[in-house]
Amino acid sequence: AQKVTQAQTEISVVEKEDVTLDCVYETRDTTYYLFWYKQPPSGELVFLIRRNSFDEQNEISGRYSWNFQKSTSSFNFTITASQVVDSAVYFCALSEANRDDKIIFGKGTRLHILP
Amino acid sequence: DSGVTQTPKHLITATGQRVTLRCSPRSGDLSVYWYQQSLDQGLQFLIHYYNGEERAKGNILERFSAQQFPDLHSELNLSSLELGDSALYFCASSVDPGATPRSYEQYFGPGTRLTVT
Questions:
Q1: What is the pLDDT of residues B38-49, one digit of tens each?
Q2: Which of B2, B90, B106, B114 could form a disulfide with B35 if both were Cys (CB 3.0 to 4.6 A apart)?
């Protein structure tokens, strides 16, 4: 069965610190997609990244980076030099390619960046 | 701005009532998905429509139904409302999932916050 676990319910860091949000997933499929979404206080869900199961290269986008490790079924997200605007709830999600296109979300990690 | 629009933004209604939530997908997207976000259940997939046809059902109650119209907008109908239906309802859209390689980015609308009193 599909499952996404975000063990960190809430994290607080001081501005400019680096922070890593953990995501562990479970799937029986060999082809799947992993996602990260951001939900700022305004409530909308913002797509950050999609990674397919065949691409284990790490990705960097500005201050954001993602580490995908199939061996540990993890897809962790790091924010470097955090800023107050990064405060949000971050969701990791999984979709299996041979299923019905639905995305299974983790419970989310609430990130507080303190000034 | 994701390009997905949802109306209304807020809705307050009483138990036992029926409401309709509306979603317009991004231009060119044929798939529409509905999700419910509540404090206790988190983000739950409800239903997926592709080009007017139902593709998949998730944790959608029988009191809820949806449809996608020829112009691709979608409506989620919630009836016999209960207090526990109070939640944020998101619509998302994506490109044709049958495309190769399959693209699963789902772009979310701003949500409709439903309060049942």
A1: 988 889 989 989
A2: B90
